[in-house]
Amino acid sequence: MEKLLEFNNISKAYPGVQALDDVGFSVKGGRVAALMGENGAGKSTLLKILSGDIRPDAGGISIDGKAQSFESPHRSLQASISVIYQERQLVNDMSVMENIFFEDLPVSGPGFVNRSELRRGTQEILDVFGLPIKPADIVGRLSVAHQQMVEIMKAYRRDSDIIAFDEPTAPLTDKEIDILFRLIAKLKERGKIILYVSHRMAEVFRISDEIIVLKDGRLVNSFETARTDEAELVRAMIGRDIGDTYANLNRSDNIGDVLLSVKDLVAKGVHGVSFELRRGEVLGFAGLIGAGRTETMRAIFGADPIISGEITLEGKKVRFRSPKDAIANGVALCPEDRKEQGLVLGRSIRDNISMPVLSKVKKGPFLDVRAEESLAGEAVRTYKIKTPSSEKQAGELSGGNQQKIILGRWTSGKMDTKVLILDEPTKGIDVGTKAEVYQMVCDFAGLGIGVIFISSELTEVINVSDNIIVMRDGRITGRVARREATEERVLALAMSDYQESMERMV
Question: What is the pTM of this model?
Fold first, then answer.
């Protein structure tokens, strides 16, 4: 019998926000249904209801025509449902095999885990995925990409009838994405129901059979993937034709003198990197995963130690001992992992925005709450952060709105940001918010800020940046101006070795 999952007129409200409003649709077994929509459209809320993390205010879920009630995630798992979130749900101090079999550890007697069986079962799964990790490896020591694959392997091991993926490919390499997509194809053949949330259009068209679009908590439309195109989806998602995003950018070409100079920088994963950033310039950094872009910026920002090299800011030699030291000198970083490194998710928007400037929002020894609220309110208005108030916890907002909090923090009226480093600033956010971020980057440059823009999306880095630096294996392999840049040229530099690149540049 063909499986059937039905969402029946589901509504869910939070104070000041209608997260879902009478949403209803169904998905049959053997099909991949992509959920798309702007950040805050209700996709994650829907998955949390499916997983039993939250309860709907109205409506419900049916499986094969039978109404279900999930009071907890455990009840959802019992109904053969697995949901893989962006936020990994792993125990970092435990091994790969203990995480994969966490709910169903094999035992050899009362209170004893059969570790040989545990190791054997895990190795079988690792062989299916073809990953270079071992059953006994500690999860917290793995790369972010491999941690994500462990999360996916947990769901694979359960052999659930319904599997939902929430932005699963964000930290993955192209090779790992191919492995995941082959696995999803096999799950389809076995009649599984797949829900797939992604902002990446190419992925959605490659993997899905149907596309369900949500906007402001409501179901806008559903499409057969083979019968729609990107333009139609964008119109459905944001309610307008986005046009040529890059051509419509309001740029400032007033690039000034050298603001930041880096010479022969050596740090962990960084080998003799040299470059210059000018006032009002957007300097893009391109490269494949592991190229050393993030490591370079962490070293400059004082987050990782520098082995050797020279950094000059506004003509003065500097060596930041910590991020606090960098911030005090006008250098700011929006990290790649905004949830782990960029925000305190359990604190309010107001707290997150005022953190770097607490000394400037004080009355004597006490915090001036009104000054904090004014600062946060300015950011909410300027960056159009969707929230009922600045007191809402950052962890309750969508990824795009979380990114806007970080941008608002570094460009508030109390900050004197000279260099703004943006590491994958559009990762996991929708097309409409991406367009907003691109314009923000141009606006920052127009204020005379030197912007470093790191992105794994070649089209994005080529079209937003004034000039592009390409890295591989911790070294710079090329420099290209925007007017001369093509995806083919940048990719060739990203894949070439250091010696070959030096010969090209001579």
Answer: 0.66
